[in-house]
Amino acid sequence: MIILSIESSCDETSVAVCRERDVLSNIVATQIEEHKIYGGVVPEIASRRHCEAISQVCDEAVNQAGITYDDIEAVAVTFAPGLIGALLVGVNFAKGLALSLGVPLIPVHHLRSHIAANYIESPQLKPPFLCLLVSGGNTVLAEVTDYTKFNILGATMDDAAGECFDKAARFMGLSYPGGVNLDKIATVADPQKYPLPTPKVGENDLNFSFSGLKTAVINLIHNKEQKGEAVDVPVLCATLRQKVCDILIDSTLKAAERYGHKKIAVAGGVSANSELRSRLESECKARNLALFYPPLKYCGDNAAMVGVQAFYEYKDGNVAGQDLNATATLPINYNS
Ligand code: KG4
Predict the structure, then answer these.
(1) What pLDDT, on the 0 to 100 scale, is given for residue 204?
(2) The predicted structure's pLDDT at residue 179
């Protein structure tokens, strides 16, 4: 089944053509340079840029896949969660395209598609498995019991891990997207020099909290500034990265043991983090657990992962009508 998929939930306009788990094309037009000067994504600008880019990106995806519009058997689109104006561009474009081609319209949840990014180059990965989903807006630990069924074991009670990286990086003077740049310049952690708190999360020990950690870094920087002392940015970056990885890895391994999972997948933008990948690799190896993470090109927002998840949504009967709307917030298990 040939599916044309669309992603516009944040600051990437992306269209892909997939045949089940095979990616025939995946075009991503990023707006990063434009948002950089503001230190983060400006929603209004994001929506406008999606409007300008989407037709051209779509044509390019069709051409690069070596197909024509007549070959498309379904149109899929990210409809939730994300920036509402940005999502609406993709949703309305998808509705028009599906209607004009006379093919089904498949709504795809953004976080489900991040998990599906793992299927693209790992044909052996099949549910059930445990997934640590870490992005700029979400941090969730979930059991993927089937391709469209999710059991949430823990989630952040405040900020996402990516948000913590991005904001802390901004206060350290790093440019947007902060998490990426923080990972690039981080050297060796020094918790003695920069002690950071370990968040307490209440009764469910698989939940997360990152806002206190973010505030601790910001306070530390202000404090140093007030005393006229310099901050060793690469060391502070490494110390924060280590602390965030400690928290994420600890909960993931705990959940794997408690619920008897032998397969662990990592997904979302933060799954590109070098320390998270390398430490999880050795921890999983030591415990005989199979670890999956997407290739770097599929860690960030892209339409290929939307197309792959769409195939499973379609098989499960998840098809939308022309009344499909975008939704800014929606849990991953919304129809489980
Ligand atoms: O999944 P994503 O592309 O967008 C959302 O759906 O949120 O995730 C973006 C997040 C940003 O916070 C970005 O800073 C973070 O992923 N990120 C990283 C790295 N690459 C991207 N954080 C830490 N280390 C990285 N290498």
Answers:
(1) 86
(2) 95
Inside any domain, residue 333: no
Whether 174 and 260 share a structural domain:
yes
282: pLDDT strictly greater than 90: yes
Q: Mean pLDDT, to the nearest integer, of 225-241?
A: 97
Stretch 17-44: mean pLDDT: 95
Alpha-carbon span 243 to 194, nearest angstrom: 11
**Among 166, 132, 146, 163, which Cα is nearest to 255's?**
132
Instruction: Residue 66: count other Cβ atoms within 10 Å of its Cβ.
Output: 10
What's the angle, vertex CA 15, arms to CA 114 and CA 164, rounded to 5? 35
Residues 11 and 61 in one domain: yes
Domain that holds residue 217: 127-293
Mutate to test the pocket of ligand 1, among 176, 266, 270 (most ligand atoms within 8 A of CB): 270
- 164 and 257 fall within a common domain: yes
Q: Which residues line ligand 1 (CB under 6 A)?
A: 10, 114, 135-137, 162, 165-166, 177-180, 183, 268-270, 272-273, 300-301
The identity of residue 16, as a single letter, is: A
Write the CB contacts of 46 (distance below 8 Å, at least 6 apart in sequence): 10, 11, 31, 35, 83, 85, 86
Spatial contact of 55 and 19, defined as CB atoms under 8 Å apart? no
In angstroms, the Cα distances linking 44 to 9, 35, 78 are: 12, 11, 18
CA 300 to chain centre: 6
DSSP state letter for 174: P
